[in-house]
Amino acid sequence: MASFRRLLPLCSSLRQGTRFSFSGVYERFGANVCGYSKFTSSVHTVSKFEEKIKRAEADASEDNDDIDNIRREFDAAKRSFLEIPEALKAMPKTNPEGIYVNRGLRLDLIQVYGFDYDFTLAHYSANLQSLIYDLAKEHMVKEFKYPEVCMSFKYDPSFPIRGLYYDREHGCLLKLDFFGSIEEEGCFYGRHQLSEEEIVEIYGTRHIGRDQARRLVGLMDFFCFSEACLIADMVQYFVDAKLEFDACYIYEDVNNAIQHVHQSGLMHRGILSDPHRYLVKNGQLLRFLRMLKEKGKKLFLLTNSPYYFVDGGMQFMLEDSTGNSGSWKELFDVVIAKANKPGFYTSEHPFRCYDTEKDTLAFTKVDTFLKNKIYYHGSLKSFLQITKWKGPEVIYFGDHLFSDLRGPSKAGWRTAAIIHELEDEIRIQNEDRYRFEQAKFHILQELLGRLHAVIPSSKRSEAYKLLMGELNEERQKARSMMKRMFNTSFGASFLTDKGQESAFAYHIHQYADVYTSKPENFLFFSPETWLHAPCDIKIMPHHVKIPSSLFKTSRCSSMP
């Protein structure tokens, strides 16, 4: 640079009009026109160097100005972060018991309401997950010969969420976003959270490709909480014991144990033996079902559970409201138990009439459904042939996206997903502290984007790196705060740590026309209501987007 600057006086004098006698030059250099040409060429070269230097200095000045401007905005934003803006506090709250619409639904066209039982009509307490976990681990120890030490494992309600995926090859529990990428802090091997470097080492990238996706199994229903926790605990045991194991076998054994707990009746008997511990009484449910009947709607119950379990649960939940404990069956036009969903939607199995007193199945063909009768097995094809109910006039409520809703959705029924944890997630999103952190995150994300955009990679100075590090650190704090408000391990079911939609939200969007926390939320709406999908929401209608503009007034007033 110093050598360049020593040439500048010469360049300056040339530009200021120093005159040369062409003839003198000709004489002095012996008419060496070529020599003169070389001299003038070097002068032009010096001029170009000077221009480049000035441009570089101007660019550097502009870059520094951009960094300084973003730095001032960042400092002003940090001052505004000291208190929650009044505008944010005044924002409307989302209804935790609302009905959220993915695809428009005219309730006046719905003539038939169908319901799953478990986690749809039946509300369970948090104690149920511990019961399922304990029964499953006991089955694994006694029947699959897992080490006796596994009996000491305890269900951890703070660990799992709904909508995780298990990688049967690598043994990892994954939380994916709407586009199939692994959450930055959403990958666990056993109970160990993997770093981004460890994720890339295993998968090559955070995005799950089509071939990798074939190894994944989704944990989507309410049983998934105990299943995910037991999988992680078993993997962690083998890791700590330094024993070789096949991750696929772990999944198969845990899944088989969970299925055994459900299908063998162990869970059913455990719940009915102490219903006050596991079941939640629900008078609102009875009001909802009666309201539908009074409006002339048809009702049916379609569940995989056996009749005795459904009957015992319904009697307990409604006994304070019905007076007559057996009257719940009168609310339904058709009751189908042990339906074997999702096979029910594609098979051609016949229906069998179930004798509740003798606990036997009749051999006569079922060609009509009678009130107060119970039917087992069957298929969607036979169901539609017998009832003559047309697809678009039927809505089915269920909690399992694949077993309950995917089949009906493809068959033309309207679908309603029941997601009990939705209420808690909305209540958290309604809190000022969550909205405050979300707004902070969006502001920091915006500043980071601008910083990346205005400073090319070849010109990133120490000032740039320092500001980038501070912005990233503050953004990470805001993201971690939002995550911990929901679940310390995986965050929210519907949201990623960045406030975007998760893969679980994607499946809700794909298979559910509407979703809500419980069926009786429909009590707030007339059966003639038209439910419209909001036009201003991109993906999930219950998500509130906090605009960074809420801070702009205070940010601008804080700037010098």
Automatic annotation (TrEMBL):
One Pfam match: 5_nucleotid
Amino acids binding GMP: D118
Coiled-coil features, chain-numbered ranges: 46-73
InterPro entries, sorted: HAD-like_sf, HAD-SF_hydro_IG_5-nucl, HAD_sf, Pur_nucleotidase
Cofactor(s) for this UniProt protein: Mg(2+)
PANTHER family: 5'-NUCLEOTIDASE DOMAIN-CONTAINING (PTHR12103), FI20020P1 (PTHR12103:SF12)
The keyword rRNA processing appears for this protein: no
Keyword Ribonucleoprotein: no
Keywords attached to this entry: Coiled coil, Hydrolase, Magnesium, Metal-binding
Protein name: 5'-nucleotidase domain-containing protein
Gene Ontology molecular functions: 5'-nucleotidase activity; metal ion binding
Similarity comment: family membership: Belongs to the 5'(3')-deoxyribonucleotidase family.
CDD domains in UniProt: HAD_cN-II (cd07522)
Cofactor note: Binds 1 Mg(2+) ion per subunit.
Catalytic residues, chain numbering: D116 (nucleophile), D118 (proton donor)
Binding of Mg(2+), residues: D116, D399
